[in-house]
Amino acid sequence: MTGLLAPEASPVRRKARLRNYAMCRPEHFEVTYSINPWMDPGKPTDKALALAQWENLRNLYAELGHYVQTIEPAPGLPDMVFAANGALVVDDKVLISRFRHPERQAEADLWAQWFRDHGYREIVQADFTSEGEGDYVTTGRAVLAGNGFRSDPRSQAEAEALFGRPVVSLKLTDPRFYHLDTALAALDDDQIVYYPGAFDAESLRVLQELFPDAVLADEEDALLFGLNLVSDGYHVILPEPATRLAARLRDHGFVTYHVDLSELLKAGGSVKCCTLEIRHP
Ligand code: ARG
């Protein structure tokens, strides 16, 4: 048997790519309104704990060699910690979000200003509801775009025109998975992981065709917000309780890290929601 490797002993060689992330300290975090099924304003939140949990995530990115920039948190915008929703950045172009709910709409101007201050030239605000990387997942094959609860499918044409990349529409059907990034994540440029139960039949067909080798997650993984992960192509950071999904990702050659973001989960967000990837050409 020398020279022969069993398939399980030769996993795909994964490679990390250093990333630029934008984040927002949960300085003003609390749950004062409810715009998704996870939010219960009657439940107390602990700001100090939210801050400590968030710092852990930021430190882990730094330890892995990633570059993290931050935007100044604004009072009265408790969900601003969910930086992924502020924009979608592909190459050096920025599609600023247009939030569905009035409670979050003021975040958009702050992000537009932040990108101007950071030297970006092509900054466009979406005409239709578009919640940034919450609903847009960039892969090498296409930009995947979720709709059904938040982003308006018409914002997809705007994204396609701005970025000059194919945008593939995916319809979400379960209100618990109201943003695409609660049900699907990019592991690298050609590999994704998703929970099939969150999508309609046509979207599943499209996903199977585009990513026949995708890693599939089950309902339990999804309810633990396991899909709300961040991957650099090799290291995958996911919420602490999602241990079964982490084991499956390790079988696929990824290295997994867990962070406890239990406070932020009270607002319906976790690792990915806190992290906006800034892509440079
Ligand atoms: N409370 C926030 C909202 O409902 C959570 C956003 C989570 N962000 C995300 N990228 N899924 O808008």
Structure description:
It is built from 7 helices and 15 strands. By secondary structure, the protein is an alpha/beta fold. The chain has a single domain, classed as L-arginine/glycine Amidinotransferase, Chain A (5-stranded Propeller). Strand 10, helix 4 and strand 11 form a beta-alpha-beta unit. The structure holds arginine (ARG). Arginine binds next to loops. The site of arginine has 16 residues, from loops.
Q: Topology as H/E string? A: EHEEEHEEEHEEEHEHEEHEHE
Poorly predicted sequence stretches spanning 5 or more consecutive residues: 1-7
Rg computed from alpha carbons, rounded to a whole number of angstroms: 18 Å
Class from helix and strand fractions? alpha/beta
Shape category: globular
- How many strand elements? 15
CATH topology, anyone?
A: L-arginine/glycine Amidinotransferase, Chain A
Total helical elements: 7
How many structurally independent domains?
1
**Amount of helix:** 10-25%
The H-level CATH homologous superfamily, spelled out, is: L-arginine/glycine Amidinotransferase, Chain A
What's the quaternary structure here?
A: single chain
**Distinct small-molecule ligands in the complex:** arginine
Q: What is the CATH top level name?
A: Alpha Beta
Can you list the strand order of the major beta sheet?
Answer: 2-1-15
β-strand percent reads 15-25%
Describe the main β-sheet briefly. Answer: 3 strands, mixed
